[in-house]
Write a structure and sequence with these properties.
The two termini are 42 Å apart. The protein has four domains: 4-152, Alpha-D-Glucose-1,6-Bisphosphate, subunit A, domain 3 (Alpha-D-Glucose-1,6-Bisphosphate, Chain A, domain 3, 3-Layer(aba) Sandwich); 156-256, Alpha-D-Glucose-1,6-Bisphosphate, subunit A, domain 3 (Alpha-D-Glucose-1,6-Bisphosphate, Chain A, domain 3); 260-364, Alpha-D-Glucose-1,6-Bisphosphate, Chain A, domain 3 (3-Layer(aba) Sandwich); 370-451, TATA-Binding Protein (2-Layer Sandwich). The strands form four sheets. Strands 1, 2, 3, 4, 5, 6 and 7 form a seven-stranded mixed β-sheet that branches. Strands 17, 18, 19, 20, 21 and 22 form a six-stranded antiparallel β-sheet that branches. The chain has helices spanning 4-7, 23-37, 52-65, 78-88, 123-136, 154-163, 184-192, 224-233, 260-274, 289-296, 308-318, 341-353, 359-364, 382-393, 436-451, and strands at residues 13-16, 41-46, 69-75, 92-95, 104-111, 115-116, 148-150, 173-178, 197-202, 237-241, 248-251, 257-258, 279-283, 300-304, 322-324, 330-332, 370-371, 375-378, 400-402, 407-410, 414-420, 426-433. It is globular, with a radius of gyration of 22 Å. It is an alpha/beta fold. Helix content is 37%, strand content 22%. It has 15 helices and 22 strands. Belongs to the phosphohexose mutase family. It holds the Pfam family PGM_PMM_I. Keywords: Isomerase, Magnesium, Metal-binding, Phosphoprotein. One of its GO terms (molecular function) is intramolecular phosphotransferase activity.
């Protein structure tokens, strides 16, 4: 029997394929999704992994057997699936393992209007029902079954994104795009068609074996090819998408990475120009510059835990216009509070193309501090190491502590956050300071305590 405890995560389903996730299990999960959501109709999409079409079809069979109509939109990015769910106002399922290696696959689920499904919003019930059916057998199919249809949403998705950003007056730009053999190779040509852009494509061939590099731009080694190509081409910028193209990383004209915090601040300023006085969500390890820029542009910053379920919940609760994370997930009220790297990329193109300077100069006002980036340490006792850091910094009288997500220590000139991984014996450290020397000093002090 499949061990769902190993593959049902906090926000999605993900595991080795077919060892942990195969078509018979996908069919049961589709049936359970239909039952739990009580949906009359659902929409299903998939990425370019070799196993994805078969898994998506099996999931559809399970839903149809429970009397639910299923629309398969085929190859798509995750944010294209969110568009379909939002536009059609029905629940959705996206078959992808995002940036994970080729042997993995998974399912990202949402309710109608692209509302997230996580452990507390239906995923636990889907798992429990699937486990029950694995043990007891699936009940007979209902009569009549649902219908199965196919639909292409790529052009509609592209048109919707372009309706949200004014690109009518941008100057010609040369942009190198690294799709990492993922779904960006499918969506980028349609979204960017017709704009005054000289697009230099890298790894646009859809290939779920990822022959060039892993489609995970959060790892610096996967950006090396793009950085070199931007410099070689004399391009204005580079864009790197992850496997399911819901995240986008930006490279400036020098081949240097632009901090996702700086992109968050830049897009926040633009969204606040559209929606004056709005709220902007940021997680607690984005830069100090993000709430500063939000306030400077008349908005209200709201700090949350790391993770898309927390961001989306705060977006819904506060009516926020925008939200950003250090991991290059960007969320928009105009996009059903869902994350879309493509829309963030269009904002960067619009901001760059409507002024004469280079990207490095444009983002400098949004990138004000020295940051360590996220540093992972393998530890045997996460709580003990965190307590050691707390005790050491508690001897100072110039710091404050909070435990919104892990341990955050804040001083006048720096802050650090130490968070345990939920799935691995790791502690994740982030440090930011007003200057690099201070950042490096605090970083090294904390790492000595963590790895002691």
């Amino acid at each position: 029997m499949a061990d769902l405890a190993q593959i049902v995560k906090a926000y999605d389903i993900r595991g080795l394929c077919p060892e942990q996730l195969d078509e018979p299990l996908a069919e049961l999960l589709g049936a359970a999704f239909a039952e739990v959501t009580e949906a009359g109709s659902i929409v299903i999409g998939h990425d370019m992994r070799p196993s994805s079409p078969g898994l998506a079809a099996a999931f559809a069979r399970g839903a149809v057997a429970r009397g639910t109509d299923a629309t398969i939109i085929g190859l798509c990015s995750t944010d294209q699936l969110y568009y379909a769910s939002g536009n059609m106002n029905i629940p959705g399922a996206m078959f992808t393992a995002s940036h994970n290696p080729a042997r993995y696959n998974g399912i990202k689920l949402c309710r109608a209007g692209a509302a997230p499904v996580g452990q507390d919003t239906g995923l636990a019930e889907i798992r429990a029902l699937t486990e029950h059916w694995l043990a007891q057998g699936t009940p007979p199919a209902v009569t009549p079954p649902g219908t199965l249809t196919r639909r292409d949403t790529l052009r509609d998705y592209a048109a919707y994104l372009l309706s949200l950003v004014d690109l009518s007056s941008i100057r010609p730009l040369k942009v190198v795009v690294d799709a990492g053999n993922g779904m960006g190779g499918h969506t980028v040509p349609t979204v960017l068609a017709g704009l005054p852009l000289d697009v230099v494509p890298m790894y646009f061939e859809l290939d779920g074996t990822f022959p060039n590099h892993e489609a995970n731009p959060l790892d610096p080694k996967n950006l090396v090819d793009l950085q070199a190509r931007v410099r070689a081409e004399g391009a204005d910028l580079g864009l790197a998408f992850d496997g399911d193209a819901d995240r986008c990383f930006v490279i400036d004209e020098r081949g240097e990475g632009v901090s996702p915090s700086a992109i968050t601040a830049l897009v926040a300023a633009r969204e606040l120009a559209k929606h004056p006085g709005g709220t902007v969500i940021h997680n607690l390890i984005t830069s100090w510059s993000v709430p500063e820029v939000v306030k400077e542009h008349g908005g209200t910053p709201v700090r949350t835990r790391v993770g898309h379920s927390f961001i989306k919940q705060e977006m819904a609760t506060t009516g926020a216009v925008f939200g950003g994370e250090h991991s290059a997930h960007y969320y928009f009220r105009d996009f059903w509070n869902a994350d879309t790297g493509m829309l963030a990329a269009l904002h960067v193109l619009a901001a760059l193309g409507t002024q004469p300077g280079p990207l490095s100069e444009l983002v400098s006002s949004y990138d004000r501090y020295a940051a360590s980036g996220e540093i992972n340490s393998t530890v045997t006792d996460q709580s003990a190491r965190t307590a050691a850091v707390h005790a050491a910094f508690a001897t100072r009288d110039d710091v404050t502590f909070d435990d919104l997500d892990g341990l955050t220590v804040t001083a006048a000139d720096w802050w650090l956050n130490l968070r345990p991984s939920n799935t691995e014996p790791l502690l994740r450290l982030n440090v930011e300071a007003r200057d690099r020397e201070t950042m490096e000093h605090i970083r090294d002090e904390a790492l000595t305590l963590i790895r002691g």
